[in-house]
Amino acid sequence: MVRLIDNKEREEEFLGLIVESYIQETKPISSAYLCNRYNLNCSSATIRNVMVALEKQGFLSHIYTSSGRVPTQDGFKRYVDSLKKEDIVKYTPLNIDFCSLTNCTIEVLINYTLEVLTEFSGYTSLIALSGKNGRLFFKGVRCILDQPEFEDIERLKHIIYALEVRMIDIQDLLFSCIDDEVKIVIGDDIGFSEISDCSLVISGLKEKDVEFAIALLGPIRMNYMKATACLNSVREQLEVIVDNFL
What we know:
Oligomer: single chain
Order of helices and strands: HHHEEHHHEEHHEEEH
Low-confidence stretches: none
């Protein structure tokens, strides 16, 4: 049972439940749904009051053809800011068989890594590589087609345009976010109108003056905990072996 205390903590708790429910259900979330799904020790009226407060603060949006609400970009940002490391470690780390790639080229390593990332995360994966072989690699554009947000063909065209035409801009963004910690860039904060309906989860590493920026691209309604866990696994395992490819 979820334990709720004061108003701020209650709002934080409810926003988390709403975001995680929306990620899974892809539809507006109602107070009745929350009450039934999570066995909350409060009434539907209390839940509705908290949802109204979150909406007034700009964290939720009310779709008037439905009794439910959906998170806004600001709602997702607040949710992401509240994520804790212990929330992420519940996902099983990826076990990547890099040992089988001994004597392969850096391009083979990158393509294998992208395929693994896409398979386990369910999102489009990207790697930007600096140096003499520098370029942007990506796989899993097919995953975009699985997201209901992108059933609109025009929105889909914009994403593909960004990946194919604005590669340098995307590379620069990814390199600017390289850190030991995963960085999450949501919606308008990406800075490209073509993918303002998306989020990027970014990490990376530096080895022998070469930078690897690793990212996952998905809808704003992406599973950030799973995506972060996937990137952490890849970065940690690449750090061990990438020196052999340079």
